[in-house]
C-alpha cells in the first residue's frame, strides 16, 4: 500500500516538473504524502525508500517543496483554507521526518508561505460556516428544496469547527517542534514575521472560535510556547527578539478588555519577567516596555485607564530598581506634551499607592532614602500638575491627590512625606491653601469639582487649620451654577464642620449651606435639611449647660443673613416631622442656665438677656412640638421681660473667647436685645397657644391688648403682639365665627384709638404752625414743647405702624376712620395730589418735620390698599407719582416694594407703570437700585411682568453698575436664569441694544419722540466715545454674546452687517451724527471680538487638545462635530457673499468722507480674515486695492508684535548693561560664578524648574523614547 502511495506521489511530481514546477500539489497527493509521513513517525527506515525513489527518478528535493509551497499559497476558492493547512502540515512534517535534509527542505520563502497560509486561514474562514467541500456558494441545493434542519446545521458546524481547529493545532505544534531544529537567527525577516503572526493568532481566533473557551486556551498555550522558543539565543540576539515580541504585544495590551489582552499580559508577566534573571537582553527589553506602552497609550479616557492598568500590572512584577527607574521616568513625563502629562498624573498615583507599601515592607531590598526621594519627587510632580495649563490635567491631578490622601491616612511614614510636600508639617498650611483658592474658582467645572473634593480630603490632614480664604472660596462654590459642584462644596464644608468645632468653619457653613434650602434642585434642599438637623439641631440638643460652641452657633444663627434660611429649614423639617422635643428642652435649659449663672454672680436681673439666638430658634421649633414647651417657663420669662420692658440688659453669656463664668465689670445697654427676646417669646407663646390653660391665656390676651393700645412699643414688638393676640383669640374661641368676631372687635378698637392719636398729633402740628406764623419765638425743640412733640410723634408713628399690622391681621376691618388721617399725612404739602379723593389735607409738610412718620404713612397706606382693591385703584397713581418726585431713598425703596406687591395682587393696574418703576434702576442710591433689580427680576421670573418693550434694554445697564453686588446679581440673571428661561432674548434685542446704549436717533428707522422719552433714553444710555463708555458698552455686548448659541452668533453677525454697516453704506445711518459714529464703531468692535467668532478646526494642533474627560456617547460627539463643520462652512460662505461686499462698499464711503473710522474698519476686517489668511486674495478679488492694503496691514501688525517682543528684550538687556556699568564705576568687584543666576527652563504649567535639566531629559521630551534597549539595533 505504501509503495503504491509513493509511486503515485512520484508520478505526480514528475508530471509537475514537466509542466510547471510552481503548480500546487493536488489535495489527494497531499493527503497521501501526509499519510506517508504520519506512518513513518520516528522510524528513519520508512522514509528511506521514498528518498531513494526520488533519486532514482532524478527528482531533487526542491521538486517536492515547490509544489507544497504553491499549495500553501493556494487561492480563495472553496476548501482553499483546508488545503493550505494540509500543505502546511505536510511541509512541517517533511522537516520533522527522521534523517530529513532540513537545510535543503527549509527556505525563507517556504517559511513565509507557511505563515501567510496560517493568517489566511483566519481571514477567509467565516464564523459558523466550516470550510468543507461543497459548502461554498456553488454547492447544489438540497433534494426536495428548503433549508436543512437546525440540528443538522449545528452538527455540521460543530464538526467542521472541530476539524479545522485540530488541523490548526497540528500545524502550530509542528511549528513549535521545527523551532528546535531550525535556527532563525540568520533569517531576521522570517523571525520577525513569525513573531507577528503568532501574536495575532489570539486576536484572529476570537472571531473564528467564539464561545469555545477550551479551544481558545489550547491555542493561546501553543502560541505562548512558540514565543517562548523565540527568546533563546539560537534564534538571534535575545534583546532584539524580546523587543520585537513586546512591540507586537503592545497593541493587544492597549486594546479593550478581551481574552487576547489577558493572553498578552499573562505572557509578559509570567513568561518574560520570569526570564529576566536568566537573560540580560530580556531584562533590558522588559525594563523599557512600560515606557514604550506609555508613549503608545491612547488619549481618550477609557482606553487610557486600561493602559494605566496594564502598565501597573507589568510594573508591579518588575524588580525594585526597575520600578524606581520607571517612577523617575514618569516624573519626567509630567513635563512633556499634553498627552504624556495626563498619562503621567494617572501613573504617579498608582505608583505611589501600589509600590509605596511594597517598598516599605521590603525595606532590606532598597535604600529607604532612595525610596523617600522618588516618593517626594512624585508627589511634587503631581502637585505641580494641579497648576497645569490644561484643565483636564489640573482636574485629574487634584483628583489623584485626593485619592492619595485617602490611602495615606492609614500609613504613618507615607503620611509624613505627604504632609512635608504639601507644607502641612508643624501646623503650617504651606502653598496648598493658595492652590485651593485658585482652583475652587477655576473657569472649568471639572477643575472646581476636583478642587472641592481635594479640600474635603484635606480636612483630616489640616487638623482644622483651614485658611479663611479657602473657607470663603468653598462658601462661594456653594452658589456655583452647576448642581454637582454645589453639592460637592456642601459636603466639603460639612465635613470640615463635622470634624472640627472651629468658629470660622461654623460661621462659613451657616452663611453658605442653609441658603441652599431655596435652591431649585430638590436633592440639594433635602441635603441642606439633613445637614442642618445633624450639625446644628443635634448639637444644640446635646449641649450641656452653657457650652461655648453652642452659644457661638446660636449667635450666628441669629445673624440677619442666616435667620431667614433657618426659618425655612425649620418649617420644612417640622412639616416632615423631623423635629424632636429634645431640641426645645435643650433650648429651655440653656436659657434657664443663663439666668442662673447671672444671678449666682449677684448681678441685677434687669440687665440680663438670654443667649442671643436661643429665643429665636425656640420660636421657630416650638411651632411643631408645642407640647414640649413648659407654660411655667413661658409665664416666668414673660413676666420678667414685660416687667423690665423699659429697662436695659446685656447678655449673660460672653462672646468671643471669654469663659462662661468670667467676671464682667462693665455693663452695656441692650434694649434692642430685650425687644427681640420679647418678640420671639410672643411668637413662642403663639405657637403653643393651643396648649395654654384658658385662664392664663385670657389674662395674657388682656395684657397684650393693653400694651398695644399704649402705642409706646418698638415697631418690631408691635407685629409680634398683634400676631400673638390674634392667635390667642382664635384658639380661645369655640368656633371660627366667634374667633373672627373677637378679632374684629379688638381690631376696630385699636383702629379707633389709633385714629384719635393721629388726629391729636395732626391738630397739634397745625396749631403749632399757626402759633409760629404769629411770631412765637420758641421752637419745637425747646423746653417742654419739644419734649411733648417728641412723645406725640413717637405715639403717632407707633399708631401708624399698628394700623398696618392689624389690617394685615384682619383684612376685613373697617378703615374709614384711619384712611383720612393717613391721606392727610402722605399728601401734606403736596399741591399735585389728586383732589378727587375729597379727603382732609394738612397744611404742614410732614415730609419736612417728620420724615419717618411720612414714610411709614405711605407703607401703611400700601398695606390697606392690598386689603382693599377699590382703594388701591385710586391710590396706585399717587404711589407712582411719589416714586417719581420723591428724593427720600428710604421712601422710594418702600414704594418699590409696595408696587411689587401690587403687581402680584393687581397685575393689570400696575402693568402700565412698569417703565416708570424701572427708572429706579438708575437711582443714585445703591439700595434703591438693588431692591428694584431684585423685585423686578422676581416678577419677571414669575411672569407677572413680561420681557417686552424697553424693559430688557434697561436691565442691561445693571451689568456695568457702580455697585459690585448689583453687577454680580445681574451677571447671574443674564448668565443663568435668562439663558434658560428666554434663550432668544439676547439675540432678538442685540442690534437694538447697540442703538439704545449709544442713544442713537440718526437712523432713519427711528422716529422722533417726545422730550420726556428723550430724557429717559439718555438716562438709560452710555453715550460717548471715551474709553470708559466704550468699555462699558463692550462689556454689555460681550455678556449678551456669551448667552447665544453658535447659530445665533452667526445670525447676529449678519444682522449687524445688514442693519448697521449696510445701512451706513445706503445712507440710512447719518455719519455726521456723533452717536451714529459710535454705533458704527461699536459694530466694528463687536465683529472683531473673539466672543462672536464661532470656533473652527483651523489651526488646531494635536499637541495640546482640551481632551474631554466625559465625552458621552459617540453618536453625540459625531453629531456635534457635524454641526461644527456645517457652521464653519456657513461662516465662510457668509463672509464671502455678504460681509466682504459690504465692507468694500463701506470702505469706499469712509474714504470719500475722510473718516477716522477707516482704521477701525481695517482692524475689524483683519480680525475677520485672520483664519483665512491664505484665501484673502480669492475673497477680495473684487477690490485689489483693499486686498493689498489688508495683506500689508496683516504683515505690519505681525511685524509690530515681533518688534514689541524684541524691544522689550533689548530694553531689559540695556538695563542690565547700565546696571553693570554703574557697579564698575563704583568699583564693585565682579561676583563669583556660583552666585550668578542660572537660566531656568519654563515648563508647560507656567512655572520654572530649578537649574537646567539634563540633556537626556530634553532629548527624551523632544523625540519619542526608542523601545529597543541599549546595545540593540534599530
Automatic annotation (TrEMBL):
GO terms for biological process: cell division; meiotic chromosome condensation; mitotic chromosome condensation. It is found in: Nucleus. Residues 1253-1262 have a biased composition (Basic and acidic residues). Gene3D superfamilies: Leucine-rich Repeat Variant. Residues 891-1065 form the Condensin complex subunit 1 C-terminal domain. The keyword Membrane does not apply. GO terms for cellular component: condensed chromosome, centromeric region; condensin complex; nucleus. Residues 140-156 have a biased composition (Basic residues). Its main location: nucleus. GO terms for molecular function: histone binding. InterPro entries: ARM-like (IPR011989), ARM-type_fold (IPR016024), CND1/NCAPD3 (IPR026971), Cnd1_C (IPR032682). Residues 126-160, 1097-1119, 1231-1274 are annotated as: Disordered. Keywords: Cell cycle, Cell division, DNA condensation, Mitosis, Nucleus. This is Condensin complex subunit 1 C-terminal domain-containing protein. It comes from Trapa incisa.
Amino acid at each position: 500500500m505504501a509503495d503504491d502511495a509513493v509511486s503515485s506521489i512520484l508520478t505526480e511530481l514528475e508530471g509537475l516538473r514537466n509542466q510547471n514546477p510552481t503548480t500546487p500539489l493536488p489535495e489527494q497527493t497531499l493527503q497521501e504524502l501526509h499519510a506517508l509521513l504520519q506512518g513513518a513517525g520516528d522510524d528513519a527506515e520508512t522514509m528511506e525508500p521514498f528518498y531513494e525513489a526520488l533519486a532514482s527518478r532524478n527528482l531533487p528535493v526542491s521538486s517536492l517543496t515547490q509544489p507544497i509551497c504553491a499549495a500553501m499559497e493556494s487561492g480563495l476558492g472553496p476548501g482553499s483554507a483546508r488545503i493550505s493547512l494540509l500543505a502546511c502540515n505536510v511541509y512541517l512534517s517533511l522537516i520533522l521526518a527522521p534523517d530529513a535534509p532540513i537545510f535543503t527542505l527549509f527556505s525563507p520563502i517556504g517559511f513565509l508561505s507557511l505563515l501567510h497560509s496560517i493568517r489566511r486561514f483566519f481571514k477567509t474562514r467565516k464564523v459558523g460556516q466550516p470550510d468543507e467541500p461543497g459548502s461554498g456558494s456553488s454547492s447544489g441545493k438540497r433534494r426536495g428544496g428548503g433549508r436543512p434542519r437546525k440540528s443538522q446545521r449545528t452538527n455540521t458546524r460543530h464538526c467542521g469547527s472541530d476539524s479545522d481547529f485540530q488541523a490548526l493545532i497540528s500545524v502550530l505544534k509542528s511549528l513549535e517542534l521545527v523551532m528546535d531544529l531550525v535556527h532563525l537567527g540568520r533569517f531576521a525577516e522570517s523571525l520577525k514575521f513569525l513573531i507577528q503572526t503568532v501574536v495575532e493568532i489570539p486576536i484572529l481566533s476570537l472571531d473564528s472560535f467564539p464561545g469555545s473557551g477550551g479551544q481558545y486556551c489550547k491555542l493561546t498555550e501553543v502560541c505562548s510556547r512558540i514565543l517562548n522558543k523565540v527568546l533563546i539565543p539560537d534564534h538571534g540576539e535575545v534583546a532584539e527578539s524580546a523587543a520585537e515580541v513586546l512591540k507586537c504585544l503592545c497593541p493587544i495590551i492597549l486594546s479593550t478588555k478581551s481574552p487576547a489582552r489577558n493572553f498578552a499580559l499573562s505572557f509578559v508577566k509570567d513568561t518574560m519577567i520570569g526570564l529576566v534573571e536568566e537573560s540580560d537582553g530580556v531584562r533590558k527589553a522588559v525594563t523599557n516596555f512600560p515606557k514604550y506602552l506609555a508613549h503608545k497609550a491612547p488619549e481618550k479616557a477609557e482606553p487610557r485607564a486600561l493602559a494605566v492598568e496594564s502598565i501597573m500590572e507589568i510594573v508591579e512584577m518588575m524588580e525594585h530598581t526597575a520600578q524606581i527607574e520607571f517612577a523617575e521616568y514618569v516624573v519626567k513625563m509630567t513635563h512633556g506634551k499634553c498627552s504624556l502629562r495626563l498619562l503621567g498624573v494617572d501613573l504617579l498615583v498608582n505608583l505611589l499607592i501600589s509600590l509605596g507599601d511594597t517598598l516599605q515592607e521590603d525595606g532590606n531590598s532598597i535604600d529607604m532614602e532612595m525610596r523617600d526621594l522618588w516618593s517626594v519627587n512624585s508627589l511634587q510632580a503631581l502637585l505641580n500638575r494641579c497648576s497645569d495649563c490644561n484643565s483636564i490635567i489640573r482636574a485629574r491631578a487634584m483628583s489623584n491627590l485626593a485619592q492619595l490622601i485617602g490611602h495615606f491616612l492609614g500609613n504613618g511614614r507615607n503620611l509624613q512625606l505627604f504632609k512635608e510636600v504639601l507644607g502641612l508639617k508643624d501646623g503650617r498650611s504651606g502653598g496648598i491653601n493658595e492652590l485651593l483658592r485658585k482652583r475652587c474658582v477655576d473657569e472649568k467645572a471639572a477643575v472646581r469639582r476636583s478642587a472641592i473634593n481635594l479640600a474635603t480630603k484635606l480636612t483630616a490632614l489640616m487638623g482644622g487649620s483651614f485658611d479663611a480664604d479657602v473657607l470663603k472660596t468653598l462658601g462661594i462654590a456653594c452658589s456655583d451654577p452647576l448642581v454637582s459642584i454645589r453639592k460637592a462644596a456642601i459636603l466639603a464644608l460639612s465635613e470640615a464642620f463635622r470634624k472640627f468645632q472651629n468658629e470660622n468653619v461654623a460661621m462659613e457653613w451657616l452663611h453658605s449651606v442653609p441658603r441652599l434650602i431655596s435652591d431649585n434642585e430638590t436633592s440639594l434642599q433635602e441635603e441642606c435639611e439633613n445637614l442642618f438637623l445633624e450639625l446644628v439641631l443635634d448639637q444644640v440638643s446635646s449641649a450641656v449647660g452653657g457650652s461655648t460652641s453652642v452659644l457661638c452657633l446660636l449667635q450666628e444663627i441669629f445673624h440677619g443673613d442666616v435667620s431667614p434660611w433657618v426659618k425655612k429649614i425649620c418649617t420644612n423639617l417640622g412639616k416632615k416631622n423631623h423635629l424632636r422635643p429634645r431640641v426645645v428642652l435643650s433650648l429651655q435649659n440653656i436659657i434657664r442656665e443663663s439666668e442662673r449663672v447671672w444671678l449666682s454672680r449677684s448681678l441685677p436681673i434687669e440687665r440680663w438677656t438670654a443667649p442671643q439666638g436661643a429665643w429665636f430658634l425656640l420660636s421657630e421649633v416650638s411651632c411643631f412640638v408645642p407640647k414640649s414647651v413648659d407654660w411655667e417657663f413661658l409665664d416666668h420669662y414673660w413676666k420678667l421681660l414685660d416687667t423690665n420692658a423699659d429697662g436695659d440688659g446685656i447678655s449673660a453669656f460672653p462672646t468671643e473667647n471669654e469663659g462662661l463664668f468670667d467676671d464682667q465689670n462693665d455693663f452695656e445697654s441692650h434694649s434692642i436685645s430685650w425687644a427681640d427676646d420679647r418678640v420671639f417669646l410672643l411668637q413662642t407663646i403663639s405657637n403653643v397657644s393651643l396648649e395654654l390653660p384658658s385662664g392664663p391665656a385670657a389674662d395674657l390676651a388682656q395684657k397684650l391688648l393693653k400694651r398695644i393700645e399704649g402705642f409706646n412699643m418698638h415697631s418690631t414688638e408691635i407685629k409680634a403682639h398683634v400676631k400673638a393676640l390674634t392667635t390667642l383669640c382664635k384658639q380661645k374661641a369655640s368656633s371660627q365665627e366667634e374667633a373672627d368676631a373677637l378679632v374684629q372687635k379688638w381690631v376696630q378698637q385699636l383702629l379707633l384709638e389709633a385714629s384719635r392719636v393721629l388726629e391729636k398729633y395732626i391738630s397739634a402740628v397745625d396749631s403749632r404752625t399757626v402759633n409760629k406764623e404769629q411770631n412765637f419765638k420758641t421752637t419745637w425743640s425747646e423746653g417742654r414743647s419739644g419734649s411733648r412733640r417728641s412723645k406725640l410723634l413717637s405715639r403717632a408713628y407707633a399708631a401708624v405702624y399698628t394700623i398696618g399690622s392689624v389690617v394685615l391681621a384682619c383684612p376685613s376691618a373697617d378703615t374709614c376712620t384711619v384712611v383720612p388721617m393717613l391721606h392727610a399725612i402722605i399728601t401734606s404739602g403736596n399741591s399735585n395730589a389728586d383732589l378727587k379723593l375729597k379727603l382732609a389735607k394738612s397744611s404742614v409738610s410732614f415730609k419736612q418735620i417728620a420724615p419717618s412718620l411720612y414714610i411709614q404713612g405711605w407703607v401703611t397706606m400700601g398695606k390697606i390698599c392690598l386689603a382693599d382693591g377699590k382703594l388701591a385703584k385710586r391710590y396706585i397713581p399717587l404711589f407712582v407719582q411719589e416714586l417719581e418726585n420723591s428724593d427720600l431713598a428710604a421712601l422710594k425703596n418702600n414704594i418699590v416694594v409696595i408696587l411689587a406687591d401690587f403687581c402680584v395682587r393687581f397685575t393689570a393696574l400696575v402693568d402700565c407703570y412698569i417703565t416708570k418703576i424701572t427708572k429706579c434702576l438708575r437711582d443714585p442710591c445703591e439700595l434703591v437700585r438693588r431692591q428694584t433689580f431684585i423685585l423686578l427680576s422676581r416678577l419677571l421670573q414669575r411672569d407677572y411682568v413680561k420681557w417686552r418693550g424697553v424693559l430688557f434694554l434697561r436691565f442691561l445697564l445693571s451689568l456695568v453698575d457702580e455697585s459690585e453686588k448689583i453687577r454680580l446679581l445681574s451677571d447671574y440673571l443674564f448668565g443663568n436664569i435668562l439663558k434658560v428661561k428666554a434663550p432668544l432674548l439676547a439675540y432678538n434685542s442685540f442690534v437694538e441694544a447697540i442703538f439704545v446704549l449709544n442713544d442713537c436717533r440718526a437712523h432713519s428707522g427711528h422716529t422722533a419722540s417726545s422730550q420726556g422719552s428723550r430724557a429717559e433714553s439718555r438716562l438709560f444710555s452710555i453715550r460717548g466715545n471715551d474709553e470708559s463708555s466704550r468699555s462699558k458698552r463692550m462689556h454689555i455686548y460681550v455678556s449678551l454674546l456669551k448667552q447665544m448659541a453658535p447659530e445665533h452668533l452667526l445670525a447676529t453677525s449678519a444682522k449687524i452687517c445688514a442693519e448697521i454697516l449696510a445701512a451706513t453704506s445706503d445712507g440710512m445711518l447719518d455719519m455726521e451724527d456723533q452717536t451714529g459714529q459710535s454705533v458704527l464703531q461699536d459694530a466694528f468692535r463687536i465683529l472683531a471680538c473673539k466672543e462672536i467668532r464661532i470656533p473652527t478646526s483651523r489651526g488646531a494642533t494635536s499637541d495640546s487638545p482640551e481632551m474631554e474627560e466625559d465625552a458621552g456617547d459617540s453618536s453625540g460627539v459625531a453629531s456635534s462635530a457635524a454641526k461644527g463643520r456645517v457652521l464653519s462652512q456657513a461662516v465662510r460662505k457668509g463672509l464671502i457673499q455678504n460681509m466682504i461686499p459690504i465692507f468694500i462698499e463701506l470702505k469706499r464711503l469712509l474714504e470719500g468722507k475722510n473718516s477716522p473710522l477707516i482704521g477701525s474698519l481695517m482692524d475689524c476686517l483683519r480680525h475677520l480674515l485672520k483664519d483665512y489668511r491664505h484665501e484673502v486674495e480669492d475673497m477680495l478679488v473684487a477690490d485689489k486695492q483693499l486686498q493689498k492694503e489688508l495683506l500689508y496691514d496683516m504683515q505690519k501688525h505681525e511685524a509690530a508684535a515681533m518688534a514689541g517682543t524684541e524691544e522689550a528684550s533689548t530694553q531689559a538687556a540695556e538695563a542690565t548693561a547700565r546696571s553693570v556699568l554703574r557697579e564698575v564705576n563704583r568699583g564693585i568687584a565682579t561676583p563669583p560664578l556660583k552666585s550668578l543666576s542660572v537660566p531656568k527652563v519654563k515648563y508647560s504649567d507656567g512655572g520654572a524648574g530649578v537649574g537646567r535639566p539634563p540633556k537626556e531629559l530634553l532629548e527624551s521630551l523632544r523625540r519619542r523614547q526608542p523601545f529597543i534597549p541599549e546595545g540593540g539595533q534599530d
